[in-house]
User: Fold these one by one.
Assistant:
Number 1:
Amino acid sequence: MAEILGMTVGLLSLSVQLFNSSQKLKHLYSASINASQKLSTLSDDVEMVALMLQNLEAYRQQSDVRDDTLLVRCIARMRYSAGNIANLVTTLETRLQRVRIFGKLSTAFKEPDVQRLVDELESAKSSLIIAHQFYVECNRRQCETHEQQRFMVAYFDRTLGGQTALLQAPMTQWVGLPPQHVDQAEQVTGQESGQSVDIVQQRSHRIEDLAIRKKTRRRRKLLFSTTFQPWLFGRVWQIAMSRGVGESMICIKSWNVVPQDAPIL
């Protein structure tokens, strides 16, 4: 753990070290008229790496990453590369100070030490990009996890709060009453609940009776007949009407009424 803290705290010192190297390279570039453009590009890259180190340190302070194995390796590699960059810049500065003719500056940049400087810088940038992406991804996942946890906690709090309120609602009106009043209130509540149950049962029975009557009426056919007296028309009329599902029928019958001793024609 102490090794991890030492590595992460050293990010700022690495950033300062790279800034110093960048300033030295810029000074060498501005001090010579015939300096190569590679020197300016190299100083800008070193400064960019220093800024990325500061950004990485800001992410480290905001996040809480437990598995820092990749981070330790990347920081160790960056520290080694930054030290080589500083040593190579110092060597280059000393070598250029020995050269009194500015025209030989471009020749000095063709030496193997300068190529080593560029290679070490690229290695430091690659290690830094890996560490930076690692921290950004971990920070994003942790933010999503914390957000989901807060949402679940708030949801369960609301659910439990609503259930507790429903359970405590019948007792809120009895708070502060003497024991005998509480017993009376419970008896009254029990009677009211029993009456309400009886009322509900009566209503349900009525609904069932109405449903049975409606079914019986639908099944039953409407039948009726009437007979006209002989003194009114001299004939007997029988009218029958029946109605079923989807059909209706009317039946009419008539008989002639004659005396018992009437001759047969």
Number 2:
Amino acid sequence: MFLCTVCTVLAELRQSEARRLKRLHVELDGNSSLRIVYDLYNPQALAWASFKDATLQEGWAYLHIETNPNFPDELTAYAAGVLEAEATRSLISKQIQNRYSKYCSNLQRVTCKRIGRYLQKQVNYMYRRALSGRKKSAFWNQIYLLLKQFTGLNDHFNGAVLQSGNRFNASEPLTMMIINWEGDLLGIEQVLPMIWPVRDGITKKSSRINTKRGSRIPGLYVRDSRSETGNSSYLSLPPGHCSALIKYVDDNIYIGHTSWFDYDSMIRIEKKYDFAFRLRDDASPSMVPGRRLVMTSYPGCLYSLDEFYLIGSGLFVMETTLDVFDQWILRRCRVKSVPTWMRSMAANRLSASGEEWVRHFSQENSGTYNNQYMIVDFNKFETNGRTVADDVLWVVEQMPGTFVSRDLSSVLRGKGFFASFNVPYFEEIRKINRLQDFEAFTTFYKYETNPRKLIFDRDQDGVESVSSMMNLMRYNDYKNDNLSTCGECKPPTRVATFAIAARADLIDLEKHPIYIFKGLSGATDAKAIDFNGFKRQRIALVNGPPNENVPTFSWNDTGLPTPAGHPDKFDFPIVIHDFEESLHDRAPDESQTRCGGDVMIDDEVDEKIINNNTSRMQV
């Protein structure tokens, strides 16, 4: 009787899921035109997609796209972009309304024109290099395919005729480029006055970057995340943009990450890309090692932006952002380059080891969106008896014109953990960035005394499961934790951003130095995996700021309108979503309910509710 009841509940839940799940594909309509078809399965489609929008129920939408290896890669890449625009159009439109619609109007007009010129020059350079080099260079072939995927996304979202031969032209509207170059724009906005003289009526005083070496104003580029009208006025992040931890214990590796971002960004999509791309544009049948990847992402964004990737090659990749404080080194940024987001995606697809990932990523440095990347090789971890052998953990840090990278497996093996908190690990990078100029008057930018570093050192011993990792990545008890104290504040004050998961909206601006500010930003999510979760491509996820020891974030409390597509209150549960193994090999009745045997509950999860292919996890 119990098993029958479980089967009935499963059947009803999956029928409800089927009503919410979109299935679609792109197929050829003539020689080069494309058309989108819903529901019907076509094994000869260029690409297939499934999409479920559970943003108001679970905090996440779920997108799965797979390309057909029997067609040319440039054709299927374009089709993949078209499918993403079609499936997620509503969420993209809401994200634009909330976050990007006022971007150019909030900048001086000539500044936005400069950004357009910069991006046009960069795209033209990439096309020129990719078209001439993709037959011999695996790197340039992947850059070309990313440009084709982006073209498909941009074409269909903006209503262009879907022709596989279309080439992207970086002219207005810039919206889709702003979405995808958002991380890189953090650097581009800073460097533009250096590479192009001030003109067109813009005064030097209003646009010049302070290039004095060793500037002692850490908050020079920190601005409130939202204006009084509730619109994002700048694409900016607070000092410190993410927290991350890798923990080795009991023959397992646990990984956690929390993104620090503006609260108007909290429409989230977990994505699975299964792109059957070849290494090069030649007759070789060799496929990229990173054909499949799962990532946390955003509407219209063809990469993670969180930079949180589970890759089918056996690699896991994540990052935390590094600010550029010595403005002098921004002169090393190059227009003729490849933006960070494209280099990371190319490296994800091409690499079978951490060292390979660093080598691919280090090409064509743009000097924009400078990060510390951590690459965990779960293949080496598994083949060495689930121990941290050499080359299990590689770390690379980027600054304009510079990379420093090393195998840091010995650190993970010796200490049992590696923490990341937006301060460079490598002394060379700290010196290049002149962080010593800030260490004299603040603990925030000093590696050994950074508040998050101290909290990680103290609390990492408690991580022994995905649940406990999620607890740590959501940790903010600033009112009671002495490690959250700002010692240089007058008087010394506990600060809501001196925590693993920041809450800048809880800051009292009058009490703090310039680099600590009040704004509608902070930790907007948490993610965690272990070895088994990586193998199954399952991420424990939660959307929204932390709320265990601090108030639950509510738009109603801000006095601002709730952004489009957002709930008023962010109190979502932790969820784990299971993507289908394949869309190409899907049998016509695969989505039907099948019951029989035992109902298994994962030991890792305290409570698991079967709901729309997504597990809810209480921790």
